[in-house]
Specification:
Layout (H helix, E strand, L loop, with lengths): L1 H42 L6 H5 E7 L2 E6 L4 H6 L14 H23 L2
Antiparallel strand pairs: 1-2
Helix pairs in contact: 1-4
């Protein structure tokens, strides 16, 4: 009976840790998307300000957030056209998001898993 009790306890702890880790990852991806959007708004070329104002974050699905620019010409500015050079603002901003993910994932998810093992 003790072996069974121990298995149930360990399974419960790790199931609970998985749920907590998923919450942490959801928060981390939201933070990362926020950093990407923040930097993109800082470096985007401004003419009327509509493109800058359209840069937001949104939740795509659990544990996946995105920084998006919603003007119809956002991709033309980012990638350029045959008549206009590219003026990237999203792609250079991604490095800030990646830094947030690395830093926070190391700290927060590791803490959850460590606590589950106690």
């Amino acid at each position: 009976m003790r072996v069974f009790d121990a298995k149930v306890s360990v399974n419960f702890r790790f199931r609970n840790a998985t749920i907590l880790a998923e919450r942490e990852v959801d928060e981390i991806t939201a933070m990362a998307a926020g950093e990407v959007a923040k930097k993109a708004r800082k470096i985007v070329p401004v003419d009327t300000g509509a493109l800058k104002a359209s840069i937001k974050t949104r939740r795509e699905r659990p544990m996946a957030h995105a920084a998006v620019a919603s003007t119809h010409y956002a991709a033309f500015v980012e990638f350029g056209t045959v008549k206009m050079n590219a003026q990237p603002y999203m792609r250079p901003s991604v490095s800030d998001g990646i830094a947030v993910i690395r830093r926070e994932a190391k700290r927060r998810v590791a803490d959850v898993m460590f606590d589950a093992g106690k």
